Amino acid sequence: MSRTGTTSTIRLADGTKAFRKALTNAPAGFFQFEAAGLEALGQLGARVPKVYEVTDDHLVIELISADTSVGRVEDPEDAFGQELARLHRTSQEQAAADQTFGSLAGLSHWYLGAAAIDLQPTTTLYKSLVTNRIVPLTEQAVEAGLLESTAVSMAEAITPEHLGPEEPPTVVHGDLWAGNRMVDAAGTSWLIDPSCHWGHREQDIAMMHLFGGFGPAVMTGYTDEFPLADGWQQRIPVFQLVPLLVHVLLFGAGYAASTMRALSTTLDT
To answer: What keyword terms does UniProt attach to this protein (predicted)?
Structure first.
């Protein structure tokens, strides 16, 4: 999900090329949140840019060059699916017995794109995802006149059962649309621009299905490595609600129909 601000290529003191993202008067903790997500994903084995510097108004990271040429690894889509599955599984395995859903440790401001979201730690996925994010974001959209008023009662009707079988908390990228996955000249995938937190792995899967851009081999590689619980396809709409609601709030009512459809489909399953 795109963020406002400016980007530029710079050189560090040692001559290394780097990528700088800047935002004047950035919200509190904006770039610190992104940097913490990159570092957390990297510690779990994901391929992410190194963080060189983070301040209140800018972030400097390793420069990664995308490449669309042919003749790289045999199947980068299958490989990416396997890597994402290993990332999710590793985070589940490394989670402490009392790991909560929501924020990474040490953070108190959280964002999806340019929108503030609530990632206060909670003991259940339902409270983290539905109570703290889906319902408040729906209320904001209705109050702004961007969604019809029935959306609030629909959001409040979502139950824990709509989220599927319980799973341990998983570190998710949190904003895994195709633009936040880069493929380099060697055909290897990199993750950028995370909204990283402890959530449910189907959040990443659902986001990948929201706007397209991932080949079918991604899901083959993923499910071969770390199968999803039965019915995951039917749960895609509920796990798409947070990004859809953020799109409504950031970009307007053009996303209202798809958001209402996701609410309706969720309640019908």
So the answer is: Kinase, Membrane, Transferase, Transmembrane, Transmembrane helix
Which tens digits make up the pLDDT trace of 100-134? 999 999 999 999 999 999 999 999 999 999 999 99
The answer for residues whose C-beta is within 8 angstroms of residue 104's C-beta and 6 or more apart is 36, 37, 40, 171, 196, 197, 198
When pLDDT is averaged across residues 58-79 and rounded to a whole number, the result is 78
Cβ(147)–Cβ(138) below 8 Å = yes
Spatial distance between the Cα atoms of 65 and 184, rounded to a whole number of angstroms: 6
Neighbours of 137 (CB within 10 A): 27
The CA-atom distances, in angstroms, between 100 and each of 147, 189, 233, 238, 257 are 31, 29, 25, 20, 33
pLDDT at 208 over 70: yes
What is the CATH code of the structural domain delimited by 64-268?
3.90.1200.10
